[in-house]
Amino acid sequence: MMNLLPKNPNSPSSFPYKNSQINLPKQKLIKKIYTEPDCYGASSLISRSLRLPFTPFSFAYWLHGWNFIPLHYKEAFGLDYNGTYLVARKDEEQFLIDNGKKACAIGAPFIYTDLFFCNIKQRRRPNSMLIMPPHGMAYTTEVWNEQNYIEEISSVINDFEYTAVCISPNDIQKGSWINSFRAIGLPIIEGAKMNDLNALLRMRTLFSQFEFVTTSSIGSHVAYAAYAGAKVSFFGQYQNLDADSLRDDGLFKQHPEFLYFFVEHNSEASVRQRYDFLFHTHPANASIAIEKAEKWLGRDNMKSPLKVATLLNWLPHQQVFYIAQKAYSKLRRVYKI
Q1: Which residues have a Cβ under 8 Å from the Cβ of 129 and sit 6 or more positions away?
Q2: Which of 150, 263, 302, 329 is such that its CA lies 20 to 30 A from the CA of 47?
Q3: Dihedral class, residue 258 (left if φ above 0, else alpha if ψ from -120 to 50, else beta)
Q4: pTM, full prediction
């Protein structure tokens, strides 16, 4: 059932309000996230498809999201990791190998929702629009031009039969966007939580129920919505990132040179160069871009659940080896062997 915001956005309660127009899988919080593949329930998609009674510990780094910036810095794949990087595309795999890393292209975690979606007939509501405003992280301090965007989006809302807004959990906690969209009476849906076992399935289900998805900044939501068959657009004044608001990110603290590269290639000028076909004067002018999204997310590189489990080092002998290796490394650190 759809999770709508309670009156107090900082309330610890789950989002209990019902809306008969949208149905989503319930949130199921992960007790503890051990590795990157556990985030958003990615590793759970694999373990459930293999009918395992639990999700084994993963000894690989499976990159979430959509890497839309040019391949220039290996830091685009996160903090330095000594194991294998599981990435979406072959160009990413080769880039990491050229930079001395082990890598294998298997597609982005989001495409593995296909394992549960291929036999589900999801009803897409005609002439419906989902608004995805820019989102930040818990430790960043973005300042969005909310009032200007609200005025722009309000000018087209009446052209759609049904409109809703999806706001990230971090922005909900920070109070970003909530009051602005409440003021124009739109229902608000909570976005993906990192510790939600059903996060990827929830977002796939959400995007599959709207004909149009519109935003004012680039991000993984663009590729995800397009992959799910929604007609995606950039509409209104593009919201550029500010380097100062991202300085507290651990990755950018260690690699400030990557910060400026990241901000530059998130800018409107850079995004228009590469994705100009997504910019529209009206969200209803957008078109389906499933084939492009499949390339962005590496659909051709998708592996069988058993192959992914092997790459995550879930097989019994792999688990014994890596757990022993991890224990030995810890002993060496503690006792300075």
Answers
A1: 157, 160, 162, 163, 164, 210, 211, 212, 213, 214, 283
A2: 329
A3: alpha
A4: 0.90
Q: Which two tokens stand for residue 131?
A: 């608004």
> What order do you get walking across the sheet with 84-87 strand by strand?
61-62, 84-87, 102-105
| Beta pairing partners, 29 | 196
Cα angle 318-322-325, degrees, rounded to a multiple of 5: 145
- Compute and round to an integer the Cα radius of gyration of the chain: 20
CB-based contact 70:112 (threshold 8 Å): no
CB 114 within 8 A of CB 122: no
pLDDT at 4: 39
Is it the case that residue 219 has pLDDT exceeding 80?
yes
What is the rounded distance in angstroms from the CA atom of residue 219 to the CA atom of residue 66?
7
Could you give the C-alpha distances from 149 to 23, 110, 111, 273, 279, in angstroms and in order? Answer: 27, 28, 31, 22, 15
Other Cβ atoms closer than 10 A to 112: 25
With beta carbons less than 8 A apart as the criterion, state whether 274 and 266 touch.
Answer: no
Task: Express each pLDDT in 57-78 by its tens digit.
Answer: 999 999 999 999 999 999 889 8
Give the amino acid at 269. A
| Res 13 pLDDT > 60 | no
Taking 70 as the threshold, does the pLDDT of residue 6 lie above it? no
- Rounded Cα distance between 62 and 326, Å, is 19
Instruction: Give the model's confidence band at 281: pLDDT under 50 very low, under 70 low, under 90 confident, else very high.
Output: very high
Q: Looking at this protein, which amino acid is placed at residue 253? A: K
Q: Is the pLDDT of residue 16 over 80?
A: no
Distance, in Å, from the CA atom of 127 to the CA atom of 146, rounded to the nearest integer, reads: 25
DSSP symbol at 191: -
